[in-house]
Amino acid sequence: MYTDPSEYYDKDLRNLSELLDFPNLPYYIDDEVKITQSKAILRHLGRKHNLDGSNEQELVRMDVIYEQVIEFFVALLSMAYLPDVENRKEIHEKLRKQFHAALPSKLLAITKFLGNDEWMGGKKLTYIDFIIYDVLDAIRRLFHPENLNAFPTLVAYVTRVEELKGVKEYLASDAFQPMPIFGPFALFGNTKDYTPSE
Amino acid sequence: MKPILGYWAVRGRANPIRMLLHYVGADFEDKGYTEPNEWFGKDKIDLAATLDFPNLPYYIDDEVKMTQSRAILHHLGRKYKLDGSSEDELVRMSVIYEQVIELFVAMGQMAYPPAVENRLEIHEKARKEYLDSLPGKLAAIAKFLGTDDWMGGKGLTYVDFIIYDILDFNRHLFNPKHINAFPTLVEYLTRVEALKGVKEYLASDAFHPLPIYGPVALIGNTKDYKPID
């Protein structure tokens, strides 16, 4: 885990540029692959460890929910890292309020989609569940937890992921820090003790 | 039932889907919404019970009723055997897709900056950053393709239709010289355009390279949009 930018940019990047087609963080290197792009890494590991969908219906569900939920993440990223203009704080406030206002209806649609299933694909835990978990958890840290708590099935889902053997131990360890979500120069979620305002 | 693809009558997110369906010779209805009210006031409401996340584009056939352009393409890729078959191919497809999607996201944000007074300033900043970094990004994509015909490294896959469209956006939103500086990428684009089914579609009235974005976008929002840099 890189804590110091120069560790990556000044030291490792030169070597990694030989190994990686598109040097970037995160990267994943093992005996089979040397790749970047977090989604590509997750898809590869999903296939490798039997955490991919096993029929067309599951695969479709996985893709649809991923695309829906990733829109959240893209919106959060955009409001975290705005261009360097004078009124960037004002723009950030505006975007954040807009996002917060739209949150209930979006979370409702996700709740309906999950329905009575345990996992987003349907019956089987897949790599997609780790992505969806992470975005939902980011939302309850960047905004008041009550926004997510208004949807008990989503809270149950998030808890279900957290109780998975292996995951539970990791989340309880020092290796996992829920915050910061974004880097030090982000406009929110950028410190260990960030507190949401809405 | 005849499959139906619903989207705005612009290029936007639908063209790779259209290209794939024409390539495989599928008989589908290409429903293009020209009036916002046709969608927001009517079909979106009618389809609320059918679609989990009512949105454009949607794709409905005997098997699926779905939204999200990438999910639709992935489904059609599996359905029409245009998906990768080896781990190597699948990894390559994922990696290049995620890389090139970053260009799509950046162009989209440039086209639709936040609704604030200085949105033009924000647009200009984003545009400059984008064009400054474009040569390096295109060089990496060209290197990744290498001497292969298709991005997966073996046969044509659904990812090639997405990569084609996003790279071609750059030839219409910006001066084509940026793309033309990479002959292997130009060859790749030409290779996609020459595919049977695709060639006829691109030459038809059903396809317009522009507009790419809707009328309120800052770039690529009209049929005869001219890039400035």
Question: Helix content range of the residues of chain B, please?
Answer: 40-55%
Query: How far is the N terminus from the C terminus of chain A?
Result: 31 Å
| Uncertain runs of chain B | none
* Coarse structural class of chain B: alpha+beta
Tally of individual helices of chain B = 9
Give me the side-by-side strand order of the main sheet of chain A: 1-2
- Which two chains have the most extensive interface, and how many residues on each? A-B, 35 and 35 residues
Q: State the share of residues found in helices of chain A, binned by percent.
A: 55-70%
Rounded to the nearest angstrom, the radius of gyration of chain A is 18 Å
Task: Determine Rg of chain B (CA atoms, Å).
Answer: 18 Å
Q: What's the β-strand tally of chain A?
A: 2
How does this model look, in words?
- The complex is a heterodimer of chains A (198) and B (229).
- By secondary structure, chain A is mainly alpha-helical.
- Helix content of chain A is 58%, strand content 3%.
- Chain A contains eight helices and two strands.
- In chain A, strands 1-2 form a two-stranded antiparallel sheet.
- In chain A, helix 3 runs antiparallel to helix 4, helix 3 (56-80) runs parallel beside helix 5 and helix 5 (127-142) crosses helix 7 (152-162).
- The radius of gyration of chain A is 18 Å and the shape is globular.
- Chain B contains nine helices and four strands; from the N terminus they run βαβαββααααααα.
- The longest helix of chain B has 27 residues, at 119-145.
- The A-B interface holds A 21-22, 32-33, 35-40, 43-44, 47, 56, 59-60, 63-64, 66-68, 74, 78, 83-87, 90-91, 94-95, 109, 112-113 and B 52-53, 63-64, 66-71, 74-75, 78, 87, 90-91, 94-95, 97-99, 105, 109, 114, 116-118, 121-122, 125-126, 129, 140, 143-144.
